[in-house]
Specification:
The protein is an all-alpha fold. The protein is about 70% helix and about 0% strand.
């Protein structure tokens, strides 16, 4: 009969192998690649079925989508539990308890939870039809599980972190100008158009539409001074709204260059596979 130590060694081996499989595939690990491809296919099918479910479809297809949702929810739940179980191997510098707590509050773990919680909530709390429809929409969080298999979202987050100070400065500047122009336009147009410019918030709607050069046309100035102010704000908007776009674009270029540098040896210059 195996001793407690032998059982522990066997369990650690199983945990390690499970960890290797559920992590993003590296090298020639066939089982890990099969796991990754299976999860990606399930995510894609979920997105397709969520869109199909918005149409008038036959009853048998609705039933199929329902059973598929149950199946994928169970699979994603098992996946989450396995990742929680193997968390100590991901955070090796922490104890078993702390590593699991760290995993639970990690970005991808929260995404995984948001992907499965909508399935279990109706079982715990009685929900009306409107709430159930809203929960169905939240299943789209499963799309973000793609982040585990691609660097795209990682790059986006890295860019926003890299350029956070410049972005905050530009956004605050634009927001202050929107507030200022809203107050000015309200002061100018409220007497001429009391129905359109009832308060500052109506003026703010106009300011946002003008600054972003969208120009819905539902609210617009009719006084000469109001038209002049509108023209000035529209011209300012072309430049100011483009500032955050330019900052983000520059950040992406820097991030791409950094990623390219990581694939080359800093000493010999040869490409690293």
């Amino acid at each position: 009969m195996p001793s407690t130590k032998d059982k522990e060694i066997t369990m650690n081996k199983i945990r390690k192998r499970t960890f290797e499989i559920i992590q993003t595939a590296n090298g020639n690990d066939v089982y890990s690649k099969i796991f990754d491809i299976s999860i990606i296919v399930l995510i894609l099918l979920n997105v397709v079925f969520i869109m199909v479910d918005t149409f008038q479809i036959p009853t048998f297809l609705k039933t199929l989508i329902k059973y598929f949702d149950v199946f994928t929810s169970v699979v994603f739940t098992v996946e989450y539990l396995l990742r929680l179980w193997t968390a100590p191997l991901l955070y090796k510098n922490y104890s078993n308890f702390k590593s699991r707590i760290r995993f639970i509050f990690s970005f991808m773990s929260i995404i995984d939870l948001l992907a499965i919680i909508p399935f279990y909530l109706p079982m715990i709390f009685p929900l009306n039809l409107k709430a159930l429809r809203l929960l169905r929409i939240t299943r789209l969080f499963r799309v973000f599980k793609f982040n585990r298999y691609t660097s795209a979202l990682h790059n986006v987050i890295a860019v926003f972190k890299l350029k956070s100070n410049q972005l905050i400065s530009s956004i605050v500047t634009v927001f202050m100008l929107i507030i200022l122009s809203s107050i000015l336009m309200y002061s100018i147009e409220s007497a001429a158009q009391p129905d359109n410019f009832k308060n500052i918030f109506d003026s703010m709607w106009w300011a946002v539409a003008t600054f972003t050069t969208v120009g819905y046309g539902d609210i617009y100035p009719i006084t000469p001074i109001g038209k002049l102010l509108s023209a000035i704000i529209a011209l300012l908007g072309i430049g100011l709204v483009a500032v955050p776009t330019g900052i983000i674009s520059a950040g992406f270029i820097e991030q791409i260059e950094q990623n390219d540098e990581k694939h080359y040896c800093p000493y010999c210059g040869k490409k690293i596979d």
